[in-house]
Amino acid sequence: MKPMDKIILALDFPNLAAAEQCLAQLPELTWVKVGMELFYSEGPQIVRTLKDRGYKVFLDLKLHDIPNTVYSATKSLLGLGADMLNYHVAGGRAMLAAAVQAGTETPGKRPILLGVTQLTSTDQVTLEKEIGITRPLGEVVLAYAQLAKESGLHGVVCSALESRAIKDHCGAEFITVTPGIRLAAEDAQDQKRVVTPKQASASGSDFLVIGRPLTKAAEPAAVWEEIKKQLL
Ligand code: C5P
User: Which member of 51, 62, 75, 198 is catalytic?
Assistant: First the structure.
C-alpha cells in the first residue's frame, strides 16, 4: 500500500457540491469517509457516485441494532459499494457476527468491518454515571476491541494514542483507523487528544481519518503535500 493510501478524507459536508472544491485539489486521494451528515442529505446514491469516481468509501454510519437488522443493513450498504463499515461493539457478539456473516456472503467484496469501542465524546464520568459501566475507560476500550476481534471484525476506530495498546492486545494485523489528526497541536478544535500524521503512523495506525485540516484549508493541496512529507 502506498503511504498516502492510508489517508481517509472525512467528507463532513452538508452535500456533495460543497465537497467538490476540496476533492478537486486532491487528485492522489484514494479513500473518502461518508458520515451521517452527507449520507442522510444526499441519500445512498452518494456511495455509488463516489465509487464511480474511483474512490474507496468508508461509510461511517456506526450501526447498532438487533443482529437480523444489522445483517440486512450490511448487505444493503455493501450492495451500494461501501468498502469499509463500522458497528458499535456495544451491540454485542451476535450483532457483530451477523455483520461479518453479511460481509462474507457478499460476492466479490472484501469489506473492512470495524468496531466502534467507545465514542471519543464519552469520558469516564459519562461511562459510569450514564452508560452504567464502572470499569476504567481504557480497559473497556481494550475489552471491546477484543470482542470485536473474536466476533470476526477486522479492526476498530480509535485514537492513535490507543493504537499501540490495541495492537499489543489484539495483534499487529488487527486494523486501527484513527481520527484526531492535526498538523499542529494548536489547531485541535473540538478534538481533545490530537497527534500528527507522523506520530499516528509511527504508533501503528493503519488508516488516518483527516477532516478539517484538509476540508477547511485555504489550500488543501498544500496540506496534502505536508502530510505526504510526514508519511514518506
Ligand atoms: O475534522 P476532523 O479531522 O476532526 O474529523 C475527524 C473525523 O473523524 C470526523 O468525521 C469525526 O466524526 C470522525 N471521528 C472522530 N472521532 C471518533 C470517531 C470518528 O473524530 N472517535
Answer: 62
Of 87, 67, 72, 56, which Cα lies nearest the Cα of 149?
87
pTM for this model (two decimals): 0.96
Give me the domains of the chain, ranges plus CATH numbers: 3-231 (3.20.20.70)
Ligand 1, residue 159: give the atom nearest the CA.
Answer: 21
pLDDT values of the chain reduced to their tens digit, one per residue, 232 residues = 899 999 999 999 999 999 999 999 999 999 999 999 999 999 999 999 999 999 999 999 999 999 999 999 999 999 999 999 999 999 999 999 999 999 999 888 789 999 999 988 899 999 999 999 999 999 999 999 999 999 999 999 999 999 999 999 999 999 999 999 999 866 778 877 789 999 999 999 999 999 999 999 999 999 999 999 999 9
Rounded distance from Cα 135 to ligand 1 centre (Å): 25
Q: What are phi and psi of 40, to 5 degrees?
A: -75, -30
Given ligand 1 and candidates 209, 210, 214, 216, which is best to mutate, with the most ligand atoms within 8 Å of its CB? 209
